[in-house]
């Protein structure tokens, strides 16, 4: 459902790569590309765009300080619709955890 990402008049748009890991223990990634019309996307917009069924928990790769993780990134679960989906190196990395 790309309805929420309609091209607006006079806007020069780019895209964002979305790298999917279909489960928490998967090493095989899938790639999607979505249009970018602003610098952020909310969790609700992200879910509406892809309409994943059945229900999943979503974990997004984001930066952190070395005192939390020596790799300087973690996968953070988003649960609230108004939370912003984090970009990592200009891309969205998401791991799915199937709950039903």
TrEMBL record:
Record bears the keyword Methyltransferase: no
Domain of life: Eukaryota
Protein name, UniProt field: DIX domain-containing protein
One GO term of the biological process aspect: Wnt signaling pathway
4Fe-4S in keyword set: no
Entry-linked InterPro entries: DIX (IPR001158), DIX_dom_sf (IPR038207), Ubiquitin-like_domsf (IPR029071)
Keywords, alphabetical: Wnt signaling pathway
Database matches in Gene3D superfamilies: 2.40.240.130
Residue stretches making up the DIX domain: 13-100
């Amino acid at each position: 459902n790309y309805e929420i990402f309609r091209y607006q008049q006079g806007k020069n748009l780019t895209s964002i790569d979305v790298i999917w890991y279909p489960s928490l223990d998967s090493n095989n990634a899938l790639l999607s590309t979505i249009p970018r019309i602003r610098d952020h996307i909310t969790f609700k917009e992200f879910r509406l765009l892809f309409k994943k069924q059945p229900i999943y928990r979503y974990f997004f790769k984001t930066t952190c300080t070395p005192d939390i993780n020596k790799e300087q990134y973690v996968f953070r679960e988003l649960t609230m619709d108004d939370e912003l989906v984090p970009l990592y190196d200009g891309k969205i990395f998401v791991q799915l955890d199937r709950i039903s």
